[in-house]
Write a structure and sequence with these properties.
With 723 residues, this protein is of the alpha+beta class. Helices cover 64% and strands 7% of the residues.
Length: 723
């Protein structure tokens, strides 16, 4: 075939009737420059709007129906909606904070802070009785904010920090504590992203032997993720989107984007090696692997949209944002990739066919020979392989039964950050519970609040209770109770339950007033409890819809049920590994609770991503099963693994290195998420797809493709491949 023939812009026509995937790919292939310019225009337009608008990320911590929310609503009703929204200026001087020179410098600094934007009041550490530690070396000044902590602009917090630092020096250390100050500790994810992309590029170069070929999946992912993140910045002005959503979008988008483009491109390469011209190779790749990517993406979308059923604002915003990322990534793989194949197709045809000819001349086996041998080995002892894989997954999943949910506080911030140093100083000077006080709200007069303070001081586990502070209208009051333990300590969680179930009900029975435990620490407990209560419904929705989709795709009952069970095991294994590392402190990690929303987020995303590999592997087995006339299920299993094993392993490896790279982030939540995703994908791509699935398919035989006639009539018929 001549170069002129390879470059000829003819219509892409499939061997049989044209489907939507072929029509879309045909347009993108023929009008390649128009397709690329459209994507460039989308990316440029979105980021122009995002740069002009800026972000308006907001954390939605409302928890309807919980006691902490009732406490917050009561404070708002009595004019104290932002009680506790402060920034602490923490000071430390070994020579003593009451030295005249130190006191003068600190007083001047506090007067400057009082004049800054969004600062309502500054309470000096020299005006109260409990603002300086007993040894006189640690103290803090409370800066009351005019806005909720989550709405405090980072720039305004930075100005408070810069102003406070002017007093530092000559032995005086000045740090900033509080929820708003934690934003200053946030580092970008660029280092993690760069490390993941570089590792992915190395894997792709080794796989394809070409930098251009290796770069195409990465270009697809970057365009898709970049467009979506820019769109979310604009959408944050209309919808409630948490500030931690974009890093999660980047984490998932890079992995999924490279994954989807790789699955299609690998099929395209296989067709070129088989002798197809670039046009026909693009047809086959989009009409087979493109379909698999489409339905795999649909399972991810179903799983993510299932998070909406939880009814928790911040998680709903994250779910919709990540779902949009997956959708745009899928569209980019189905439209932008054919355009790039149209540009580089002749080059790839020469490179891949020459590489295959050189391998053949050297007597090397084809790429699938090793996987074919592995499949044959598993088929000789399918029950043993199945049991071995199940034991490994079970052993990893068992620790997940002891997982403890919560939220990391400033004690988990990077060691050099100002919020972490303030946290450590306050713990040293006033006790570990000082960083997470419980806010007891009293709906009654001063006597009712005083009764609560007395009871709290007599409660084991409470280090001290502060004097009651009345609300502006005087009809309610708050009492700060300082636990004897850190906010992340399991005993603090138990203390919240003791106060709610035992101590405060007794006080209420005597005084007739109503008492509620609120504040940040109690809110996190309610958040975790709400997630736990709604998790079964969420899992039922996600698993049920995914099973129905796979039944329609594969016309089978056993294959979807097997996929659901194995996906649950892989998620359990990932949660178990997270518990061992981040909760129990394995490998030298600092122990603490697992972020409360991570299990549901991990479940939704990993369940969908696991279905990607399931659909890609089983669809090729189904293709071989149909090609053999539905007579040799063992051959279909073996050949399906031979044709997809290397691609699934490469795709899994890329996802693993991208996810694992996020453990380099200073953010504990991103560390946990990256580690959990990496473990889940490793288990899925290596143990499940290469060991358990071939064994299970061999044991099921032709029964794997059985579907009762009544169900077959009810379910829509979906074609994953055309013949």
């Amino acid at each position: 075939m001549t170069t002129t023939e390879l470059n000829r812009d003819e219509d892409i026509r499939p061997p049989t009737r044209s489907g939507v995937f072929v029509r879309v790919a045909g347009f993108a292939y023929r009008r390649r420059w128009i397709a690329l310019l459209l994507w460039v225009a989308v990316l440029a337009g979105v980021w122009t709007a995002a740069s002009a608008a800026g972000n308006d990320y907001r954390n939605d911590y409302s928890l309807p129906g919980t006691e902490s929310q009732q406490a917050a609503d009561l404070l708002a009703e009595h004019g104290a909606a932002h009680a506790g929204d402060t920034i602490e200026i923490v000071l430390h001087d070994e020579g003593g904070l009451r030295e005249p020179g130190v006191e003068q410098r600190v007083g001047a600094m506090l007067r400057d802070v009082a004049g800054l934007n969004n600062v309502g009041q500054v309470q000096s550490l020299y005006e109260g009785g409990g603002a300086i530690s007993q040894d006189g070396t640690v103290g803090f000044a409370a800066v009351t904010l005019d806005v909720p902590s989550q709405d405090m602009p980072k720039a305004d917090t930075q100005r408070i920090y810069d102003t406070a630092q002017k007093a530092a020096g000559d032995g005086l250390q000045v740090e900033l504590g509080g929820d708003a100050a934690r934003l200053l500790a946030e580092g970008g994810t660029s280092a993690a992203e760069g490390a993941g992309i570089l590792a992915a590029l190395v894997i792709l170069v080794l796989m394809f032997g070409s930098f251009i070929a290796a770069g195409l999946p990465i270009v697809i992912a970057l365009f898709a993720v970049g467009s979506t993140v820019g769109g979310i910045i604009v959408a944050s002005h209309v919808f409630t989107i948490a500030e931690w959503t974009p890093p999660v979008m980047i984490l998932v988008g890079l992995g999924v984007g490279i994954d989807y483009a790789l699955l299609i491109f690998a099929r395209y390469r296989a067709e070129l090696v088989r002798g197809s011209d670039p046009r026909r190779a693009a047809v086959t790749a989009m009409d087979a692997a493109g379909r698999s990517v489409f339905f795999a993406g649909c399972t991810v979308l179903l799983a993510l949209l299932g998070l909406v059923a939880l009814g928790i604002g911040s998680i709903q915003g994250m779910a919709l944002s990540v779902a949009l990322t997956v959708l745009v990534t899928m569209l980019a793989s189905l439209t932008m990739l054919p355009a790039l194949l149209g540009i580089f197709g002749p080059r790839f045809a020469r490179q891949f066919t020459r590489r295959a000819e050189r391998r053949k001349a050297k007597g090397k086996a084809d790429d699938g020979a090793g996987w074919r041998r592995l499949g044959a080995g598993v088929q000789r002892r399918p029950l043993a392989a199945l049991l071995a894989g199940a034991v490994i997954l079970g052993a990893l999943a068992v620790p997940a039964l002891g997982i403890r949910l919560g939220f990391s506080d400033a004690g988990g911030d990077p060691a050099g950050s100002t919020s972490r140093q303030a946290y450590d100083l306050l713990s040293e000077g006033f006790g570990p519970g000082f960083n997470g006080p419980l806010l007891v709200v009293t709906d009654g007069g001063p006597q009712a609040a005083a009764a609560a303070a007395t009871a709290l001081n007599d409660t084991p586990g409470v280090q001290a209770a502060a004097e009651p502070i009345p609300t502006p209208d005087g009809e309610a009051a708050t009492v700060l109770a300082f636990p004897a333990y850190s906010p992340q300590d399991e005993r603090t969680s138990e203390l919240v339950g003791t106060l709610r179930d035992d101590v405060l009900p007794q006080v209420s029975a005597q005084s007739g007033a109503q008492y509620m435990v609120g504040g940040a620490t109690a809110t996190l407990e309610d958040y975790s409890a709400m997630l736990g209560d709604r998790m079964p419904l969420f899992m039922a929705i996600v698993v049920g819809l995914s099973v129905l989709l796979l039944m329609a795709v594969f016309r089978s009952v056993l294959i979807p049920l097997k996929a659901a069970v194995l996906n649950l095991l892989s998620i359990g294994a990932a949660l178990g590994a997270m518990k061992l590392v981040f909760q129990d402190g394995m490998f030298g990690m600092e122990g603490g609770p697992i972020e409360a929303y991570l299990p549901v987020m991990l479940f939704a995303i990993v369940f969908g991503l696991s279905m990607d590999y399931e659909i890609f592997l089983i669809s090729r087995m189904h293709e071989e099963w149909t090609r053999s006339g539905q007579k040799d299920p063992s051959h279909a299993v073996r050949e399906g693994l031979a044709h997809t094993g290397s691609v699934i392993t490469a795709a899994g490896s890329i996802m693993i290195v991208i996810f694992a790279a996020f453990t380099l982030s200073p953010d504990r939540m991103l560390q946990q998420a990256g580690f959990g995703f990496a473990v889940a994908i490793f288990v899925d791509a290596v143990i499940i797809r290469c060991l358990i699935v071939p064994a299970a398919m061999e044991l099921m035989g032709s029964r794997a493709w059985w579907l009762p006639a009544p169900m077959a009539r009810l379910l829509p018929k979906v074609e994953l491949e055309r013949h």
